[in-house]
Structure formats: structure tokens, C-alpha cells
């Protein structure tokens, strides 16, 4: 079940996403908000935040390698699309310090990634959207913010 990108994060922005005023989804982070500030707000709200740096990513292998490195994937990650989906719908490996109130993935430089590898970005977006949909009705929702 793909949710699709829902556009720019509406007001009240990151605080609204974290308190449930804005439903979990995939949004563009407004230019007035920085990824580091969003991550700080998420941590303060009890959410697990992770940065995924996509600058200079030009294909599937590089994207999957970056996900493994930046997101701290477990050793069983198989470096393929199915394994990415599995990691994003399991997330037990992100619960080392207890159960977070939610998961926030900050996908930085998304537009550059999409320009360099449009097919890979389209598949990645679908998997991220599916992960958001998976977590939507659970106690720990997931949201993706693209910059």
C-alpha cells in the first residue's frame, strides 16, 4: 500500500508531526526548517530520528550502501530492495534504548538524488512510502522528511 508523497509539511510543521496534529507521511521539510533542528525536536519528543544523506548518490547500490551506513542497518541487511523494506518495517534494531514514540527519517538532498538516479529514487520513494503506511496505525508511527 503506497501512500505517496504528500507535499510540503504543513503548519505547524515538525512539532505538529511529532504531536500527531499532522498525520504521519512523507513530506518535504520547509526551507525555513533545518534537518538538524527537526532531529532535535524529534529527540525531545521521544522519537528516534535518523539522517540519510543522499548527496552524490547515483544508483541503487550506492543508495542501499548509504542506507546501511547512515541508518545503522543490522548485519542481516541483504543490500536489495526487499531487504530495505524488511529493515524499514522491522526497526527492532533501532530500539536499543527502549521504545521510541515514533520514527523520523530525514532524507537529505532528495532532489539531487532523484536527478542523478530517477528510477532508483522512484523505487526508494515507494519503499519509504510503504514503510510509512506500515507504521501509520501502530503505536510508533514513522514519517519521512525530504530536503
From TrEMBL:
Recorded superkingdom: Bacteria
CDD domains in the cross-refs: Barstar_evA4336-like
InterPro entries documented for this protein: Barstar, Barstar-like_sf
Signal peptide: none
Residues of the Barstar (barnase inhibitor) domain: 47-144
Name of a matching Pfam family: Barstar
SUPFAM superfamilies, per the entry: Barstar-related
Family recorded in the similarity comment: Belongs to the barstar family.
UniProt protein name: Barstar (barnase inhibitor) domain-containing protein
Organism in which the protein naturally occurs: Streptomyces mobaraensis (strain ATCC 29032 / DSM 40847 / JCM 4168 / NBRC 13819 / NCIMB 11159 / IPCR 16-22)
Amino acid at each position: 500500500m503506497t501512500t505517496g508523497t504528500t507535499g510540503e509539511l504543513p503548519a505547524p510543521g515538525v512539532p505538529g508531526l511529532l504531536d500527531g496534529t499532522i498525520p504521519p507521511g512523507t513530506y518535504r521539510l520547509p526551507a525555513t526548517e533545518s534537518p538538524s533542528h527537526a532531529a532535535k525536536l524529534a529527540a525531545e519528543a521521544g522519537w528516534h530520528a535518523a539522517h540519510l544523506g543522499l548527496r552524490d548518490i547515483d544508483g541503487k547500490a550506492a543508495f542501499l550502501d548509504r542506507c546501511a551506513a547512515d541508518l545503522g542497518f543490522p548485519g542481516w541487511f541483504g543490500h536489495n530492495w526487499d531487504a530495505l523494506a524488511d529493515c524499514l518495517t522491522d526497526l527492532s534494531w533501532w530500539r536499543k534504548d527502549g521504545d521510541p514514540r515514533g520514527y523520523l527519517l530525514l532524507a537529505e538532498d532528495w532532489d539531487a538524488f532523484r536527478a542523478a538516479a530517477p528510477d532508483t529514487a522512484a523505487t526508494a520513494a515507494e519503499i519509504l512510502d510503504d514503510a510509512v503506511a506500515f507504521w501509520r496505525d501502530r503505536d510508533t508511527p514513522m514519517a519521512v522528511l525530504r530536503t
